[in-house]
Write a structure and sequence with these properties.
This protein is an all-alpha fold. The protein contains twelve helices and two strands.
Length: 279
Amino acid sequence: MTSWAERMHRRAATFSNVVTSCGHPPVPYPRRLEKVKFGIPLDEVCKNDIPGPLLVLILKLNKEAPFKKDVFRAPGHQGNMKKLIHFLQAGRLVNLDNFSVHTIASVLKKFLRKIPGGIFGRGGEQRLFAVIDLPTIEEQRDQIHRLITSLPTYTQRLLVLLFGTFRVIATNAERARTGMTSEALGVSVAPSFFQSCVSDGKTAKMEDVMRFKVATRIMKFLIDNFGVSNLFGRENYEFYARITGRILKVEEDWIFSFRYPPATLVSREYLLVMLQMTA
């Protein structure tokens, strides 16, 4: 395990113990956590890595959201959203058991929506809009892989955690009857990832509607192809597996283990070691 992952585990474990504890400290706010500021560039939020409080929010959703209905679609409690955002921005300790997964998901969407230029950047958004119309799925995967791996490391890791979480939610949608398929997730979260598909005015223009539809297609593609190809890159998949402890079930009869063969080619024959499930 890398030193970065070890630090994240220690920080996430410490923060998780604090935010999930039902007890109360003898004095208010005995220690401060990293601040998660909304509306500032991602490099200022993450600096060298993902802030522990933000990581724990995603991990809680990764664990609990697959079994809850309408997460990322149903709105969170407005009062609790304001309270949680205040705690995150102030670096204050917070008991996450007091907040529903719908509230946490809504806060996360707002954080992403407030990133200046969006998580992909304006140029990245334009490239994704072009890539989704390429003639073959192999070309689409390769171009998206190049785009994602060209982003800063903290952005790559944030993206792989987010889309890994979306994927596990979508995979469980039918069995858990949550309604959150990859298409439903795409519709629900696209405006938080693609700022160019959000209208500046009060009334959406036809162009905005068309861009929103394309953005939802891109989101669905990224969710459906998470883990089945080298979309996010070897190191990012390994990071996701280490941090979440998951081996992602992608298809009905297969489990994808995030281990790679020696070859580093970005081709579908040499992407992931697939272990067929036994009855």
